[in-house]
Amino acid sequence: MTTLTMKEEKRLEVIQRVFRGELTVVEAGMVIGVSERQCYRIKARVTKRGAKGVVHGNRGRACKHKTKEKEVKRVVELAKGKYEGFNDRHLTEKLVEQEKLEISREKVRQILRGAGIASPRKRRGNKHRSRRERKAAEGMMLQVDGSPHHWLEGRGPSLCLIGAIDDATGKVVGAMFVEAESTWGYFRLFSEVFSKHGLPQSVYADRHSIFWTDREPTLEEQLKNQRPSTEVGRGLQELGVTLIPAGSPQAKGRIERLWGTFRTGWSVNSDERERKPHPKHKSRSSAISPSTTANSLSRPYPSPPGEKPTPPRLKEPCALNKNALSLRITPSPLKARSFKSPNLLPLAPTPISESMCMCC
């Protein structure tokens, strides 16, 4: 027994009127919305097969592009096991690269939702917020931030990943692990980034006490009409890099979203946690092109001929936490002269046992 849809019943009725001579084939084609030639085909099928002639030939057939049930079960097992916590896009990449399963992102989404596996990222309602345009060229602005997290996945202490991303291209220009955000950590990060990529026009950071201070200005600062600054702020200012404080985490959303990408696909070795992250399930990401075709606007990292650049350093010794065991402080030459390049910056205090300066 063949069950007809409303559309098919209408077609059958029109074709029967053609048989009865009430309509011509041209008129019937206009009524059912097909060409004259197609109407002749339908009429011939009805003549040969009866009412079944108006039924589409693909009804009841399985699509040749349908994903096999075996592959569907495997995707669900991987999503609950090996790749647990991966978002839909990241999981699709891993299925193609590691598991050799050529499945589209939309199909992966349908399989996971059908199996009751929700996306790890909560979708929020749209909020009215004016989005700041990216800078026009590479080197105009770096966004910097730190992300404390259990990067060692329970194999060691909780670490903080500090990094920098170019605002115009989204390229990660530097990142390293430290025990906590500190002045020393950012000096090390800036030293590597500036040496490799040059000095940016500006740095966009949050209002952490490392970058921003609300203390009252000293008498010397009042006489010079200077706003109080931290050691990092002072160093960037003397290098000619503008420090821009962000008003909210959303304001520097590009680097905030980067931490989410790293947390779902990166881990590190406990014996190398102070150097750089090591990819476990690295997500594919590529930098975008800036809105202008201009070259990078970064300035060269200045250094005397034949000498390696030295990292930015503390101008004055600062208070340390109670866990510090001992320090070696290098005297500051800035009392005699102001540096015009990173090579003239005094060395940061070198801890014999790792300790973190949290006061600036």
Notes on the protein architecture:
By secondary structure, this protein is α/β, with parallel strands linked by helices. Helix content is 30%, strand content 11%. Among the domains are: 6-54; 69-114; 142-283, 2-Layer Sandwich (Nucleotidyltransferase, domain 5). The chain has helices at residues 6-19, 25-32, 36-49, 69-80, 88-97, 105-114, 183-197, 219-223, 231-238, 253-265, and strands at 142-149, 159-166, 172-178, 202-205, 242-245, 266-267, 278-279, 327-328, 350-351. β2 (159-166) and β3 form a beta hairpin. The longest helix has 15 residues, at 183-197.
Briefly say what this structure is:
The chain has 360 residues and is of the alpha/beta class. The chain has helices at 6-19, 25-32, 36-49, 69-80, 88-97, 105-114, 183-197, 219-223, 231-238, 253-265; strands at residues 142-149, 159-166, 172-178, 202-205, 242-245, 266-267, 278-279, 327-328, 350-351. Among the domains are: 6-54; 69-114; 142-283, Ribonuclease H-like superfamily/Ribonuclease H (Nucleotidyltransferase, domain 5, 2-Layer Sandwich), CATH 3.30.420.10.
Mean of residue pLDDT? 76
Distance between the first and last residues' Cα:
82 Å
Order the strands across the largest sheet as they lie in space.
3-2-1-4-5
Q: What is the count of helical runs?
A: 10
- Find the CATH superfamily of the domain at 142-283: Ribonuclease H-like superfamily/Ribonuclease H
Over the alpha carbons, how many angstroms does the gyration radius reach? 32 Å
**CATH architectural name of the domain at 142-283:** 2-Layer Sandwich
The dominant shape is elongated
